[in-house]
Amino acid sequence: MRTPYRISRVFLLAAIFLSGVLAGVPAFAQEPVLPAKFGAWIASPATPPVSSLPQPLQQELGAKAGEASDYSNGSKTFRAVLEKFKDPSSAYAAYTGQLYVGMAPTDVRPYSAVNGERMLLLIGNFLLYVDGVKGISAADLRTLALAVQGHANTTPLPPIRNYLPEERLIQGTQRYAFGPAGFQAALGTLSQGKFALLTNSIGFSSGAEAMLASYLIAPGKSQSLLLIEYPTPQLAEQHLRHIQADLSRDSDLSSTNVERKASLLSLVLSPANERAAAQLRNEINYETQVTWNEPSHTLTDPPWLLVVRNIFLGTFAFCGLALVLGLAFGGVRVITKRLFPGKVFDRPENMEVLQLGLSGKRIDPRDFY
Predict the structure, then answer these.
(1) Contact residues for 208 (Cβ-Cβ < 8 A; gap 6+)
(2) Which residues pair with 84 in a beta bridge?
(3) Bridge-partner residues for 81, per DSSP?
(4) Concatenated DSSP letters for 85-109?
(5) Dist. CA 257–CA 130, nearest whole Å
(6) Integer Cα distance of 271 and 217 in angstroms
(7) What's the burial of 202, exposed, middle or buried (CB within 10 Å: 0-12/13-18/19+)?
(8) DSSP-derived 3-state class of residue 70
(9) Could you tell me the pLDDT band of residue 350, with boundaries at 50, 70 and 90?
């Protein structure tokens, strides 16, 4: 009698154990993103390297366990390493953090750069490294990128990246951050670590986003631009005052001013001079627009020749219609009187004529027709 009970208990324990094991396996581990094969390239599993990002920055960006594969095509080989993040903005922050001066852009992806044997590609919420890139064609790289894109989150990247001026920009110095760890790391790579004291006053917890880049002023001389965007102009004004207070308390930062335009704050870090800082600010690609939700339309008067023409056409049409109706009414009456005289129209028994009685002769209505 106890055998069925024991069997059911064993199955129950096995089910609990399997559910616990499956619950501990991440969803992305069940379905690899890197393809097992594309074109003539065959993949073999490889151990992903340890991320070069500091642990606090990994937590801020929502980094997840990555993947790696070694691809071979005859005697040609290369390695692909995929890093995963919680969203495209996080991946973009990690992408800019891996850029450095000297990397060249490529035509494989809009956001891609190469230096020597390593290529870096931003694909949605993924960051793809290709080592040994000289052994693979650009067409095969695009095929690999499209295969990875099929698993990626392709929501739009942060708009603040488009506000940076293009003229005199030192390529490879662009940095994007939406948290304290990323902001301090970006300042460190641009040799502007003394501005780390602004981290708390910027207010990343309020939804602030930061974009940094360096610009060439003269041979061997540059200055850095910091843009901070907030969800609303009110938040920008509030944090503007906090940043100004921090700058005024440090003598090393006294030459740096902060300006606000709608929801965007701009700071030229360690400016070469006031003129260079003002010129850089004027080149920021940021415009504000005021829109109305109410529908609107534009009233335009037609040309006066068109108005005169329509008046004449309307008059002629009205006169023509009156003529046609008049002829029709009169013609029907005349024809009816000829065919049926005194029976439909002008019947004598229904007609009366008023007379003054100046003569004794009575007027016959038929004498009028």
Answers:
(1) 178, 202, 228, 229, 230, 235, 239
(2) 64, 126
(3) 68, 129
(4) -SSHHHHHHHHHHH--TT-EE-SSS
(5) 42
(6) 10
(7) buried
(8) strand
(9) low
Q: How far apart are alpha carbons 18 and 20 in whole angstroms? A: 5
Are 113 and 103 contacting, i.e. CB atoms less than 8 angstroms apart? Answer: yes
Looking at residue 2, its pLDDT comes to: 44
CA distance 172 to 352: 111
The H or E element that residue 77 is part of is strand 76-84
Q: Where are the domains of the chain?
A: 27-149, 159-282, 333-369
Interacting residues of 286 by C-beta distance below 8 A, sequence separation 6+: 163, 227, 261, 262, 264
347: β partners: none
Please tell me the number of Cα atoms within 13 Å of 365 on its side-chain side.
Answer: 11
**Terminal Cα distance for the chain, rounded:** 128
pLDDT tier, 113 (very low <50, low <70, confident <90, very high otherwise): very high
* HSE-up of residue 326 (Cα within 13 Å, Cβ side): 6
Q: Is 90 exposed, middle or buried (0-12, 13-18, 19+ CB in 10 A)?
A: buried
d(CA 138, CA 125): 22
Q: What's the CA gap between 335 and 327, in Å, rounded?
A: 12
Q: Which of 92-96, 306-310, 311-315 has the highest mean pLDDT?
A: 92-96
pLDDT of res. 159: 95
Mean pLDDT computed over 291-319? 79
